[in-house]
Amino acid sequence: MKAVILAGGLGTRLSELTEATPKPLIEVGGKPVIWHIMKIYSHYGINDFIICLGYKGYAFKEFFSNYFLHMSDVTFDLSDNSMEVHHNHAEPWKVTLIDTGHATMTGGRLRRIRSYLDDEPFCMTYGDGLGDIDIAKSIEFHRSHDKKVTVTGVTQPGRFGVLVTEGEIVKEVREKVVSNESLINGGFFVMDPSALSYIDGDESILEVETFQRLVNDGQLMHFRHDGFWQPMDTQRDKTRLEEHWNSGNAPWKVWA
């Protein structure tokens, strides 16, 4: 199974950091947030990634092109400009980096990578959210129903669009309703490729037009997650994630 990560946004709410670095490459505990996300998926046996680039996409190419070397013990022999790799600690990841446009919306970015997907379901998430999501159970749940999209629903007050549900079916998506009990879109989707037919083009916003179309057809389900979940939208969020990591007990670190 493949995992798609949306990593092309401007990250304007964290502009003091994203002016120089795209948000998914901002570090928590010395590693980019996107690395933490990939480690979560890799823990569940998903090692084939498609990353949707936009803003400062070249930075991702530079990071991954040097990753093998950075994760290796090496000897450089400068007399003949040779290199010997002794031990490599890189993960067994296959990473496909696709330029999906600088100003493309979230739905449009997904539509642009359709040709890189198989015909089986795939995982998808944003490049800035961490959680101890049970990816295996979310996939199992998705396969247990015949709907096109499963979204992980989490509880978080205030800033995010609310999922109005009836059982496990999403009946409505409301933007930014303040309630401590409301489920919100926590990312970590499982999707059938056929769901991408609900997206018109580059201007389509996944969380608005696409969700509404799926809701209208009864094709959007939610997988409830009551554990840890935290996006990195602000400097305060980044500080909180750093504190979790530095404590030695980061909740999203599900890997050994």
Provide a descriptive summary of the structure in words:
It is a single chain. 27% of the residues lie in helices and 29% in strands. The two termini are 21 Å apart. The model has no long low-confidence stretch (mean pLDDT 93). The chain has a single domain, classed as Spore Coat Polysaccharide Biosynthesis Protein SpsA, Chain A (Alpha-Beta Complex), CATH 3.90.550.10. It is globular, with a radius of gyration of 19 Å. The strands form 4 sheets. Strands 1, 4, 7, 8, 10, 11, 12, 13, 14 and 15 form a 10-stranded mixed beta sheet that branches. A two-stranded antiparallel ribbon has the order 2-3. A two-stranded antiparallel ribbon has the order 5-6. It has 8 helices and 16 strands. It has helices spanning 15-18, 33-43, 57-65, 67-70, 106-112, 135-144, 206-216, 235-246, and strands at 2-7, 27-28, 31-32, 48-53, 72-77, 82-88, 94-99, 122-126, 129-131, 149-155, 162-166, 169-174, 183-185, 189-191, 220-224, 229-231. With 256 residues, the chain is of the alpha/beta class.
